[in-house]
């Protein structure tokens, strides 16, 4: 009898705790609202499939020779990115050079000196706090007969970052600078072992303590096998692992502006693919920075020379880019920075 009583009171305590937790989550969800959706819409609409297409075609062209880190083609791709920022009037925290050099000694497998490219829009109220939007710029290079163009991997992510930077710049020039700084980070050496992001997080340009979140993009232009009947989706990985708030901000951004299916199946702890550990965001997460990894899943052209620009779904790339922009906008403009409340 006594044992049963203990069990009963434990159940009661348990359900009260669950109730409090549910109330807390409800309150948190209610608190996440965009102040002026029309303003966000205005800059969202500057992100277009035509411009994304132009960037993807250029970035995955044969000129860049598959962009292998440390080689001619990747240097050329880095210069293409830098020139874009200069032309758009978007500054770098590194002054006129835009490059964070990653020395040969930091790589293995004979990879030569390479570079991350970094640009930013300075925050108007909390400039020292930063939201980092990242995408790796390198790929698999070429061999005697073929070039690995990497249009989806990661021409799609690179194009998305370039378009978002332009949108944030336009907003800033029209009196809507973000409250926090928004950083555009093009990482090298992802394909050879996440080296560029490891280097950045070890030698950060903005302190890791003031890095509010990392939104990392790696392949968002295609549709995988399991979504052939509903291509309006994106896999969201990592959003709830360090900050409950980040997960709900991402959901609110989607609800307000894009209405995609946010697919969380690859975020499961026991997912055998372990994508959470496999792209650049993981180096940020390891330093305690909340991250979201945006991903379309693998497809038949993944890491093949057939990953070419005509196979990208550009209207979908536009929609996914808008989701990321709206999420970044919220993170950069909310009254308080997001809270880390989940033990990793
Ligand atoms: Zn990739």
Q: Can you describe what's shown?
A:
The protein is of the alpha/beta class and 344 residues long. The chain has a single domain, classed as Aminopeptidase. 40% of the residues lie in helices and 15% in strands. It has nine helices and eight strands. The chain has an eight-stranded mixed beta sheet, sandwiched between helices. α5 links the parallel β3 (126-136) and β4 (180-187). α3 (49-59) crosses α9 (314-333), α4 runs parallel beside α5 (151-173) and α7 (244-258) packs across α9. The chain is globular. 49% of the residues are buried. The protein binds zinc ion (ZN). Zinc ion binds next to α5.
Topology:
Blueprint: H1 2-31, H2 37-44, H3 49-59, H4 72-88, E1 99-102, E2 114-121, E3 126-136, H5 151-173, E4 180-187, H6 195-202, E5 211-217, E6 233-237, H7 244-258, E7 261-263, H8 281-286, E8 291-295, H9 314-333
Parallel strand pairs: 3-4, 3-5, 5-8, 6-7
Antiparallel strand pairs: 1-2, 2-4, 6-8
Helix pairs in contact: 3-5, 3-9, 4-5, 5-9, 7-9
Zinc ion is lined by residues 136, 153-154, 190, 218-219.
């Amino acid at each position: 009898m006594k044992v049963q009583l203990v069990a009963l009171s434990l159940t009661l305590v348990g359900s009260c705790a669950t109730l409090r937790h549910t109330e807390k989550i409800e309150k948190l969800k209610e608190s996440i609202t965009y102040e002026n959706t029309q303003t966000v819409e205005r800059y969202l609409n500057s992100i277009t499939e035509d411009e994304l297409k132009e960037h993807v075609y250029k970035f995955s062209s044969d000129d860049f020779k598959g962009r292998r880190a440390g080689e001619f083609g990747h240097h050329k791709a880095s210069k293409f990115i830098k020139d874009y920022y200069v032309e758009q009037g978007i500054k770098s925290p590194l002054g006129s050079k835009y490059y964070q050099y990653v020395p040969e000694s930091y790589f293995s497998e004979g990879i030569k000196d390479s570079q991350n490219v970094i640009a930013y829009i300075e925050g108007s109220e909390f400039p020292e706090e930063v939201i980092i939007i990242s995408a790796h710029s390198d790929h698999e290079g070429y061999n005697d007969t073929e070039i690995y163009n990497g249009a989806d991997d990661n021409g799609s992510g690179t194009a998305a970052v370039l378009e978002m930077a332009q949108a944030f710049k336009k907003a800033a020039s029209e009196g809507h600078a973000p409250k926090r700084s928004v950083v555009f980070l093009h990482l090298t050496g992802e394909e050879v072992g996440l080296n560029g992001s490891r280097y950045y997080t070890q030698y950060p340009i903005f302190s890791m303590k003031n890095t509010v979140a990392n939104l990392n993009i790696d392949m968002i232009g295609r549709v995988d096998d399991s979504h052939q009947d509903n291509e309006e989706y994106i896999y969201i990985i990592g959003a709830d692992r360090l900050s409950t708030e980040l997960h709900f901000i991402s959901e609110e951004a989607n609800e307000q502006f894009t209405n995609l299916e946010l697919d969380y199946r690859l975020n499961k702890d026991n997912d055998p693919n372990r994508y959470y550990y496999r792209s650049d965001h993981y180096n940020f997460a390891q330093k305690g920075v909340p991250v979201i990894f945006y991903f379309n899943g693998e497809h038949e052209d993944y890491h093949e020379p057939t990953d070419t620009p005509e196979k990208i779904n550009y209207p979908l790339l536009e929609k996914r880019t808008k989701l990321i922009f709206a999420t970044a906008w919220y993170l950069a403009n909310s009254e308080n920075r997001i809270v880390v409340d989940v033990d990793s």
